[in-house]
Amino acid sequence: MRCFSLMGFRLMISFLDRTSLQAVIYLLMGLLLLGCAHETQKPQESVQKPIEPSEQQSPAQAPTPRFNLLAPTQLGDTPLRLQRLAVSRPDQKHTLLAQWQVHTGHLSLEALTPLGLPLLSLTYTDHQQLSTKTYIPIPEGLSAERVIADLQWAYWPIPALSEALQAGYHIRQAQKTCAQGHHCRQLWYGQQLISEVDYLDQVHNTLVIVDHQYGYQLHISTLTVTP
Length: 227
Fold this sequence. Notes:
DUF3261, DUF3261 domain-containing protein
């Protein structure tokens, strides 16, 4: 499997003051992807046991997780993508960088601040083995599983996603009802629209995830694609 190099994306982080780092914290909490504290520490590695489907459910909202995580090979090998992620809420907007790839049954992902400070790296395999490395503390309640789920919702094939959905969910493909894109996929729980992905081009280099349940929009712009 190809290795990831952060050398090309790290800038001098001496200019990263407490204010900009705090902005990154708000971004990651808003995305339910990552999180951080104000002081860095040595990387922490963890290898988890195979992931078991969760039965967590709240009567006030659609149950989570929405679907069981899919095998990387259900997408197939991909080029290495470097992407800019911008999250928008009514009161804030922040960005980070991410690079990811699926290769030989492994999904590998690195997340960085806009100034190149590494946040988190993860590897997820066809055998549901998840390994993570955190470079700064991640608050309780945020997980690598959430990172993978958002990525798979946007990029994995709809037939594979449909087979992995929890009871009560279904996926619709639409064109005329898309908010921004030329075509989109929508996740419904009964008659409740939970989340949708609007694709702004035919090759999915630019897209918007509109999460109605959690109340944010995630704009993904591909900066580079390396075969």
